[in-house]
Amino acid sequence: MSAALHGVTTAASLTSTGEAVQFWILGTVAVAGALCTILMRKAVHSALCLAGTMIILAVFYLANGAYFLGIVQIVVYTGAIMMLFLFVVMLVGVTAADSLKETIKGQRWWAVACGLGFGVLLAAGIGHASLDTFTGLGAANSGGNVEGLAALIFTRYVFAFEITGALLITAAVGAMVLTHRERTERARTQRELAEQRVREGRQLPPLPAPGVYARHNAVDVAGLLPDGTPSELTVSRTLRARGQIRDVSPEAMADLRALERRSEERLGRRPYEPPRPRDSGDPRAGDRADDPPGDRPGDRPANRREEENAQ
Amino acid sequence: MENLIALLVAAPLLGAAVLLCGGRRLDAAGHWLGTLLAAASFVVAAVLFFGMLGRGAEDRALHQTLYTWVPVESFRADLAFQLDQLSMTFVLLITGVGTLIHVYSIGYMEHDERRRRFFGYLNLFLAAMLLLVLADNYLLLYFGWEGVGLASYLLIGFWQHKPSAATAAKKAFLVNRVGDIGLSIAIMLMFTTFGTFAFGPVLATADKASEGTLTAIGLMLLLAACGKSAQVPLQSWLGDAMEGPTPVSALIHAATMVTAGVYLITRSGAIFDAAPTAQTAVVTVGAVTLLFGAIVGCAKDDIKKALAGSTMSQIGYMVLAAGLGPIGYAFAIMHLVTHGFFKAGLFLGAGSVMHGMNDEVDMRKYGGLRAYMPVTFVTFGLGYLAIIGFPGLSGFWSKDKIIEAAFAKGGTEGWILGAVTLLGAGITAYYMTRVMIMTFFGEKRWQPAPDPHRAPDVEPAAADDGRHLAAGPVGSPAAEGPAGHPAGELPDPHESPRSMTVPMIVLAFGSVFAGGLFSINSAFVHWLEPVTRFEHGHPPVSAAVITTATLVVLLAGAGLAYAQYGRRPVPVTAPRGSLLTRAARRDLLQDDFNHVVLVRGGEHLTRSLVYVDHTLVDGVVNGTAASVGGLSGRLRKLQNGYARSYAVSMFGGTAVLIAATLLMRAV
Amino acid sequence: MNPVNYLYLAALLFTIGAAGVLIRRNAIVVFMCVELMLNACNLAFVAFSRLHGNLDGQIIAFFTMVVAAAEVVVGLAIIVSLFRSRHSASVDDASLMKL
């Protein structure tokens, strides 16, 4: 905040050393945040890095005498828009991470080449431009920054302002239309649903609960069937769709087996050897938890489900 | 007075419309109606003529504008008539001879069940021909030009049940098309050069255009004239056109339509005067045709075809005279009028003979007819004397003037032209004497009417004519004639009915006196002078010498013919003859020439064009398509469907734009 | 310090954002990169505003923010409905334009 106040005092004149220090430190952080935004595998991390960059930009706005924008940047951009992003990220799958492996041939090299060329040319353009005038906002902000902006918005830019209002309403309606799903048929009653289940002959009783044998109370761990195999039916459909089912860990299985053996011995029954869990020996099973969908274009949850059904 | 001009065209046009649309109800009276309307047109022409005589020489021309036919920006074509002395001459000739021939046809076509239609076509022809000579601009003239072509086609093929007539009609139509292209190109050239095609402005400003343009226009007009007037190289249709009924031959293919070319050249005199090259071409065409027609006329045994050759030759005289410029225009028209009289009379006489001889056309099967057909003999004989240029008769006055004018052309050219016209006069005397002797003198060589189912053996050359595309049926008169005669009977020559003889007598009067009347005080020349202009030619030798030479040549030709045909019996089947005779019997190989050069050449040209089309044009098109296809197949790989790829190209494009902006700033 | 440095920073951030759009496949991350580019532009506007001493640049930046908000709303709606129908947020999956 002191830096912001510092910016306030120096906005009217040439930049001070303090602002230079602030620029170089925060500028570095902003660039790092931007780079992290595009390099982080998980969308959540990207969003958080972007939010950080935006806050730093807000500080820069304040330093440049744009007090209103600086606050709006923090409140609206970082506070509302980025939260909207996070919300959607959560909706789509918070643990979903991109693999950074490129699938289009030459795409990355072209992108980097174009980016470098573009950046260099842009910098050259800025260096080339005659930007030797420096007026500062002292005079413009003399009546207060917000008042100055308001005077412009409601006079010279009043039509643009009104039109942005229309744009916002249109956008809101558009978003509703896009995400709204019209129910075209009557909702089926419970009786009808029950009758359909009977007719199809699939899973007549209620679905089993997840995490029965898990050490931790988790909904993403499949419950085990009596023969020791995990059942995907126990896990919520959304998690299944995202491929976020966690396997029952081998130790839990071993513990379970040991417990059973002990109880056998104590009760003097004949040893019961449960069949090996289906997935426990599969080397990929362990990876799968860390290998959510979206890594490869063809590797979607639907495919995964098909794979497992095939097994 | 002006308002009567439209009536000239309207009367026969009405006749054609009524007769052709009226149906069978008019069968009984149709020929009278047609004749009446033709006569009405003649009466109107006479009224206009006397009205014209009553005015001064300079304001005799009348104009009548009915309405603007095609008004498009600067393109203006009026339906307007112009009646000046030249048009008046033609109008009188057309309506006069036309009316006579209508009358003649009443008798000649008496037994033809399609007589009403025949009169309808005749009226249509009259209307079109009058439109042609009355038009005040080239576009309307073109309309009439095509109209007479149509009427000619319909009338040549009137007996369309005969394949030979149908073929001849098609041949005439096609050959005429070639000439018509020349006229249409000439009109287009005129419009681009002068911005109009009305006679007045075009001819008045003709000398302001460049000589090259005028030569082009002149040559195109000459092409048109060649087509319509059967001049070399478009002469081949006229001989076959004799397949039509004889009145048609007399009216269209002797007296009027075939002279339209002469009218065109005379009317466009100002253009030709300013384009000496075109004029030389006109003279050359006239001279060549003059001899060509005369030689063909000498060899034909078919009386109508001999006369057709003669027509060609006489029109050659007119074209030659028209090509001489102001010293010849008036004589060309004068010869045209006198020729209209005597050649129509000769054709009507021939028709009368055929009428009495079971429609036999082979002169070798005539002979000694003078006693049986006295009126025909006398009128035909007067026409004969007129055409060979017997002193005092029409042909003498007009042809002699043309020969003088040819000599007056001056220089080597004048001598050559003079010699050609003199030679032509001699040959004319020869072939006309031959026709006369073979038809009316000597012993009877009558043959039974030929069996229509038997192949004609009139001319040996006819046997292989079938392989020619457009070859006319040289001698198949078997089926001709409105009335069939029982085969195997000897003909019973008789004089024709009054309706046929009266027109012949009237025309004979014309043949005898017209030339003399025209030449009193050079009346005809002075009459035409305001339109065609006139200069006195000055031949290198005196006129008396030329006249004497003409008479000597004439006597020589007639004497030769008498020696060959009058002193010795004429064989009924034609002797083999010399090479020239055989060639002349085949119209000097005109059809063979057309077949080999034009038909074969055209076939080869189209074949090679097809080859070029298939290899070169298709190759280019297919090659382009294939290369575009191949290129697209490669470019398609860029279109991989990934939005990010497209974004890269967009980003790269932005970078290039920035680079370009910086570069422009730096420069 | 020369305030032009803010412009260089804006150019750098813009370029990074553009590269991110090209490199990342997750539509949400791509969208974030677009936001980064917009923010870079805003920074440039604000810096220009200060350089020239009038507030028009800030007004434009303000409008950019409003439009960006509208864009985010619609864009995220599109992503959500896309995810709903295709179970994926990868932009490469929407490569249906190719034959």
TrEMBL record, chain A:
Q: Can you state which reaction this protein catalyses?
A: a quinone + NADH + 5 H(+)(in) = a quinol + NAD(+) + 4 H(+)(out)
Q: Which GO terms describe its molecular function?
A: oxidoreductase activity
Membrane topology type, per the record?
Multi-pass membrane protein
Q: Where are the transmembrane segments?
A: 20-40, 47-68, 74-97, 109-129, 149-178
Subcellular location(s) of the protein: Cell membrane
Class of the enzyme per the UniProt entry, highest EC level: translocase
Write down the InterPro entries for this protein, in alphabetical order: NADH_UbQ/plastoQ_OxRdtase_su6, Nuo/plastoQ_OxRdtase_6_NuoJ
The enzyme's E.C. designation: 7.1.1.-
Q: Where is there biased composition of kind Basic and acidic residues?
A: 184-202
Briefly, what is this protein's role? NDH-1 shuttles electrons from NADH, via FMN and iron-sulfur (Fe-S) centers, to quinones in the respiratory chain. Couples the redox reaction to proton translocation (for every two electrons transferred, four hydrogen ions are translocated across the cytoplasmic membrane), and thus conserves the redox energy in a proton gradient.
Family classification: Belongs to the complex I subunit 6 family.
Q: What is this protein called?
A: NADH-quinone oxidoreductase subunit J
UniProtKB/TrEMBL annotation, chain B:
- What are the alphabetically sorted keywords of the record? Membrane, Transmembrane, Transmembrane helix
* Keyword match Transmembrane: yes
Q: Which Pfam families match?
A: Proton_antipo_M (PF00361), Proton_antipo_N (PF00662)
Q: Name the InterPro entries on file.
A: NADHpl_OxRdtase_5_subgr, ND/Mrp_TM, NU5C-like, Proton_antipo_N
Ranges annotated as spanning the membrane:
31-54, 89-106, 118-135, 181-203, 209-227, 248-266, 278-299, 315-334, 369-394, 414-432, 505-528, 540-563, 646-664
The NADH-Ubiquinone oxidoreductase (complex I) chain 5 N-terminal domain covers: 69-119
Residues covered by region (Disordered): 469-495
Q: What is its main location?
A: membrane
Q: Which Gene3D superfamilies does the UniProt record give? A: 1.20.5.2700
Q: Quote the subcellular location field of this record.
A: Endomembrane system; Membrane
Domain of life of the organism encoding this protein: Bacteria
**What is this protein's record name?**
NADH-quinone oxidoreductase subunit L
From TrEMBL, chain C:
InterPro entries given in the database record:
NADH_UbQ_OxRdtase_chain4L/K, NUOK/Mnh_C1-like
Q: How does it sit in the membrane?
A: Multi-pass membrane protein
Q: How does it assemble?
A: NDH-1 is composed of 14 different subunits. Subunits NuoA, H, J, K, L, M, N constitute the membrane sector of the complex.
| Function, as annotated | NDH-1 shuttles electrons from NADH, via FMN and iron-sulfur (Fe-S) centers, to quinones in the respiratory chain. The immediate electron acceptor for the enzyme in this species is believed to be a menaquinone. Couples the redox reaction to proton translocation (for every two electrons transferred, four hydrogen ions are translocated across the cytoplasmic membrane), and thus conserves the redox energy in a proton gradient.
> Record's family?
Belongs to the complex I subunit 4L family.
The UniProt record lists the EC number as 7.1.1.-
Encoding gene (name): nuoK
Q: Where in the cell is it found?
A: Cell membrane; Membrane
Please give the organism.
Answer: Streptomyces pyxinae
Annotated Gene Ontology MF terms?
oxidoreductase activity
Q: Membrane spanning segments where?
A: 6-23, 28-48, 60-83
The name under which this protein is listed is: NADH-quinone oxidoreductase subunit K
Q: Does the keyword field hold Metal-binding?
A: no
